[in-house]
Queue: 3 jobs
Job 1
Amino acid sequence: MKKRIVSCIVTCMETYCAAISWNKLVKEADDLFRKLFPITRSITGNGVRQTLEILREVADFDIKEIPSGTALYDKWIIPDEWNLRGAYVEDPFGRRILDAKDNNLHVVNYSTPVDCTLSFGELEKHLHTDPDLPEAIPYRTTYYKKDWGFCISYEQFKKMDRTGTYRVRIDSTLEPGSLTFGENIIRGNSGQEFLLSTYCCHPSMANDNLSGLILWVLLLRELKKQNTRHGYRFIAVPEGIGAVAYLFFNKRVMRKIQGGFVITTVAGPGKFGYRRTYLGNHLIDRVALKSLGELREEFIDYPFDAKTTDDSHYSAPYFRIPMGILCKDKYYEYDYYHTSFDNLSFTSGKNLIGTLKLYLLSIEKLEKNLTYKSLSPYCQPQLSKRGLYPETGGKNHVNAHPAQADELDLIRWMIFKSDGKTSLLDISDSTGFSMEDLHRIAEKLRRYNLLKVIK
Ligand code: ZN
């Protein structure tokens, strides 16, 4: 099944990126997964810097910092920077039963420092489990409330000694520093810009959202190689606060963004999915759904939901940027979400590259969504005198060679529809021809001086 998906997408992509070595990309994605997975990331701190530095070896972008204490919109303020050196819990027999060295999810992200002994009853108030997935360590955070805690599998929690004294230590720092994010702007000449945003704050979980970060940087590299018509603004920010900060410091340009994608949870073993923009049928939705449709595989079509990720900020009333999400095992939806089971066994480079192809297909459609105008609007132009009609007239062209018939059909539809108002995407939707074929024919007719590009 998976093999068929990949081969089908490869066919669709033939004209666009035949030069891409997909197998090499799969290996590169797998290598990046292994390299970046163990790093302790948070909404601030050295883990984010280290991650972005490694990603910058794949495709260059700027790494920027915003100082702690910077006031943003509403009550959002850049928090103190958090760094974790180590953390553990020792049981009454001196055995180290939890250690952040084994898994950084054991520590509630943003825990304040602590070094004390306490009873099980007192410790229990700071322990988090997930009885629904009893063998997994849950992921918990305390970004905006000063607190500390540990996460432990429910199975291990049940076995803990209830009588003795525990020793706990969290060797963390929470002090003025900065929030770190990545940015790269690919300039186009169409006057339109799209946003490609991902979040870089999650510690060791592979699908949410190491996969998004890896896809983001590979997509950046692919688009940098092309001479794109539109502009593409790539940002990798800590979820929530990072998006608010980016909007705050880029208010004017962000209001002009046409739309975009939040790149998250793209490499699970389940079906492809698409979470629609708040508009539901925006250009972004149409190119994403059309690309998914070309797979001829079942996918999940999620409506917009206000319980969402960074697009709750990007699509807020002042900015209203329509943001879609192409994913593979969408956040919230898979059983291992926000647990230690979202690890490198759950995801794969191959799955990630399958979703990367969908992003490339969608962007190809954005790029090719031109509007043409006929330069012979008074009648259908004389095609045979231009060598655009089969040499023997009178025959019903449906009896001609299929390729020739298709070409003539495409030519007729393109000329008929090119009123200067109808985009290639509209023509594709109404005729059933692919945008790639329509674009190829439109460019041919442009060379024959039969069409011109309006926008
Ligand atoms: Zn998450």
Note: The longest strand covers residues 165-175.
Job 2
Amino acid sequence: MRVGVLASGTGTNLQTLLDAGDVDVAAVASDVPDAPALARAGRAGVVTAAFPLTGADRSGRDARMAAWLRDQGAELAVLAGYMKLLSPGFLTAFPAGVINVHPALLPAFPGLRAVEQALAHGVKVFGVTVHYVDEGVDSGPIILQRAVELPGAREPEDVMAALRPLEHALLGEAVRLIGRGAIRRDPAHPRRVLVSH
Ligand code: GRF
């Protein structure tokens, strides 16, 4: 299974995929030309490209980005800190689908600043979700989730420090499971994702 990664920022999730050894990262694209994630990919010898949105044609840009990733051989697209919505044309371009990692237990706290949202709500259990991407904001079917109890948490940085290792583990696990055909959609329930470990 060849993987195309989209990343807008630091790229620590991308780095764990690059370091995994058993994950075949075919290419990395970004909407941010100077994203540190692109430099990480370059250092690992993976081809990169930037697709900044210059005009209003987001669906055209997304189609070019999907076509480029497919040209590099990507069958699965992984959003590793890609912070924008994607057009339908991007989402249907990948035979193995498009997945995302989110630092909250969805459907709680979708969108930006999820950890800040959770802290503001006063939750005591935080967590991470890997899910299929649809046209909504973090609204696609859930593949894997993991929770961590942090009843005394006050600072977003402390929560993120606890969540980051979970994100890295869960994203790699999801990519591996998809790669070996262990993930399928339940024909009886459109939102349920069946995982055979
Ligand atoms: C992660 O918290 C991820 O859950 C969210 O964006 C962040 C990306 O971090 N979608 P990094 O760039 O992989 O370090």
Note: The radius of gyration is 16 Å.
Job 3
Amino acid sequence: MEILRATAEANPNMALIKYWGNRDESLITPTNDNVSVTFDKLKTRTTAAFSDKFKEDEIYVNNRKMITPEELEKSILQLNFLRMKYNVSMKAKVVSYSMTPFAGGLAGSAAGLCALATAAADALNLNLDKKELSILSRVGSGSASRSVYGGFVRWLRGDSIDGSDSYAVQIADENFWPEFRIIIGMVSSSEKKVKSRSGMRLSKATSILYKSRVDYSHSVVNELVKAIHDRNLPRICEIAMRDSNNMHAVMLDSWPPIIYLNDTSKRVINAIHDFNQSEIKSAYTFDAGPNPAIFTISKYAKEIENILKECGIENIIAANVGKGPAPIEEHLIDEEGNIKKHCLKDGELIVGE
Ligand code: PMV
């Protein structure tokens, strides 16, 4: 059977100004420009294979076949967009391994949908530039649009109705600030109760504070970009913490309210403010889950890890700034279209025959 296949790895990213809501739900165009840093842990590897022989799209993640519409939604939306835009009729078999805990509010879909976009485009020889790759990643998962670059990244909201001007641009690459750290505390890896896509839809429709969040993020995004260029840690951290708090305020203000933070998250917020008392040296941020990510620089990293431990968090991942997606020679699907055995061993993905 003739199959076209390619494999890619992509890193997750953590937002400093968050994306929380769409202008257009089907195109995934955000209501506000947002900014993230790509980090070098919890990556995803994905092999995408296309063939006329495949009867339907099949998606496997971490050795499990995705079955429910909810599990399949993001990948299928992305594959359908790709088929329509680039005139492809073949169905796909996708095998993916994610090092990120599932749907725990830890940016897993960013790495996953960026890796799928990259692998699928390579398999079909589409030769996409970064802008097109970002748009393809975006229609799978908004945050994935930012993972197409390493370093610090801004996702432009855009204004057009077809979404063609809503894509990521790089602010500074992965070598710009080697001391920058992203320290993640795993409070919970369980599935979040409200998925980010439905949560943001609810917030946009019901939160009284929503409009002021959009206005506020417009007013501060250029300042954040400048603070990154200046490596101005205190300013970056203040903007990031206020944005996270603002997004979680909007979540609480949604109806019915959405609450992702738990007591451990709140302990971390207070502990970071104590640590920052004389000077701002770190920032907490939370996505759609209770797990804190702390931005800081290398000389404070050990202290931050101790703070997280004192807050009761045992599982801590310290990451550096990471790179954009890259092709990988070792596929998870063989030449006949069969899934190769694969598993994680000592933090490395081992692939058999
Ligand atoms: O694109 P999604 O479904 O991964 O949504 C991401 C939303 C947040 O993680 C909460 C914020 C962000 O900008 O990453």
Note: Helices lie at 69-85, 108-123, 130-140, 196-206, 210-229, 233-253, 263-275, 301-310.
